[in-house]
Structures are given as structure tokens and as C-alpha cells.
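*** Query protein ***
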Amino acid sequence: MSLTEVNGQTNSSAPVARGVLELLACDPLPGWDRVASTIRLVRLRPGEHLFRVGQSQPFVFFVRQGVLKMIYETGDGKEWIKAFAGEGAFFSSLSALQTGGQTTFSVLALQDAVVEKVDYALLHALAEQHMAWQRVLRRAFEIYGFRKEKREKDLLTLTAEERYKNFLLEHPDLESRISQKDLAGYIRVTPVGLSRIKARIKRAGNSRAPG
């Protein structure tokens, strides 16, 4: 079944996008009604794609429900997991935000998911008019840069066990909601290797427990 897209105004739940964007702005956002009227909800079943690589998707996405997986795909069919996104997360393919740009990775749902879809061109237009919206975009790009830098550093300097422990600290609610295969792929280890890491951590914890 293909994904379903509906007008966000027909849903009674408050938009996740508003809470996230106002948090970035540290202020109420002027012109919010213009954004609210254009929000679209995308409903996905497990395994369905929000978008695939090479598509025109000039939008910012906010996760209202579920968990999504972002992946890079190689020509020989291999999959490299870029990130996961749970409730309250936001993301975009930056390349697709440029005029004529296309997505450089794919996103699919790991669970039933509801995602809010916001037109980036409208956010950019509001930023041209209001300082609060300028702060939103500046902080959003800063967060993206910080995440990217940290991910690169972790992959290059940490062991798989250290990356696993960091994942648990940073995303304590996600481990039980994603497959061990996906988690292993994210920390760049085989599923067997991940099982060994877990067993080693468990043994270390037991050895420190009072007798």
C-alpha cells in the first residue's frame, strides 16, 4: 500500500512542528498560521518509504508518531544506516532544499508512522521577514552540523562498543523499537558482533554487582 497524505488541518492533534520550531526560535513565531495551513500529514506503514533517493522533496519533516530509518544505498544494493528518527525529531535532505535539488538518501518507516511535512520555501520566506524565523533556520542548520560532525567523529574514533553505549545514552527509547540488525548496522558491526558486545557489557555489569 502506498503512503497516504492528508491535510494537516483536519487532524485534531497539535502540530509537532510548531513545538519544535518555537523551541528553536525561543519565541512565539509570527505568521505561524501561514505554516499551519500548509502542513500535510503523511501516514506510513512499516516498510513504506517517506521518500527515496533522487526525488524532489523540498520539505522539512517532523515525526509525530513512529520511528523512521534514513539510509544510503550503494549501487550493489548495500544499505548504510544514516540515522533513526523518533517522535519529536525533524529532518530533511539538504540537497533537496536547493532549487532543482534531489534527495541523497532514502527514508522508510520501521513502525506505523505519522509525519508532518512542511514546505521549506515558506520557512525561508518567513525568515526573510522575521528575526524569529531566521533564528529557527540558523539553529536548525547548526543542529544538523553538530549531529553530522558527532556522527563522523564517533565512526572514526570510537569502538563499536562505545558507539553502542552512546546510542543507549542518546536514544534510550529507541533500542526496543528497532531491530537488532538495524541497530548493528547503525553502529557498524555485524548482528553477531552486537550480540557479543551486549554479552560483554552484561558480564561486566554482573562482575561489579555486590556479592
